[in-house]
Design a protein that fits this description.
Length: 230
């Protein structure tokens, strides 16, 4: 076509650019697109709009002790960051964390039953050490440990006995319901009375009943004395 300009004929002088602009202004849109495809987008834009000259900013410091001015167009490297926000470490308590599941007392007792077996063995070992020891300070220390272990074992056995008793009562109620009989639900006062009777029988068998009565009497006397003083 007559109005199409070859790439070699494009001059960078102002007069030549003005002449080319006048020629292009008379071309149709289709001819402009063909020219753009032929010479390329970069040459086409430079011919019509002129070459872009971005003024470069001088980031050189006037004084070496001053902070360096950086271009905002450049991506900052993570390693060059002055301060990094550290992720706060969080701690979890399994007792109050729902992710750890719910507490199952029965399963807990079965899984850690061996601990009280170890305590019973340790109590027997302390008894043997007490018999073989001649040092008064060491005997005092062993007696203290034996008393502490003994209290823990007795409390554990007491709770186990109560738990077994409750399970037995529930089992009897279920069995009576299965055969169509009316179950008997005991009152708290009846259960308390049965517990006192069982405790009395145990103290009587172990010959500790008199000692328990004396201890109980002293406790009641001390309580009454405090009430009188008030």
């Amino acid at each position: 076509k007559e109005n199409e300009a070859e790439p070699d004929e494009i001059d960078t002088t102002t007069q030549e650019r003005e002449r080319i602009k006048q020629e292009i202004s008379t071309m149709s849109f289709e001819e402009l697109q063909k020219l753009k495809q032929k010479v390329g987008t970069k040459v086409y834009n430079e011919t019509i709009f002129g070459a872009k000259r971005d003024p470069k900013t001088n980031f050189k410091r006037a004084n070496k002790n001053r902070p360096r001015e950086m271009s905002s167009k450049r991506k900052v490297n993570v390693r060059n960051e002055i301060s990094q926000v550290k992720k706060q470490q969080s701690f979890r308590d399994p007792r109050f964390d729902p992710l750890c599941g719910t507490f199952n007392e029965k399963m807990f007792k079965e899984n850690y039953k061996f601990l009280f077996d170890m305590k019973r063995k340790e109590h027997k070992q302390l008894e043997r050490e007490l018999e073989n020891s001649d040092d008064l300070e060491e005997k005092k220390k062993i007696k203290f440990l034996m008393q502490r272990l003994g209290n823990q074992i007795r409390e554990h056995d007491k709770r186990e006995k109560q738990r077994n008793k409750i399970q037995e009562e529930k089992r009897e109620i279920r069995n009576k319901l299965k055969i169509g009989e009316k179950p008997i639900f005991k009152k708290k006062s009846e259960k308390k009375l049965e517990g006192l009777i069982e405790k009395y029988e145990e103290l009587k068998k172990s010959n500790k009943l008199q000692k328990h009565i004396e201890k109980r009497s002293k406790k009641l006397a001390s309580k009454n004395k405090k009430q009188v003083q008030l």
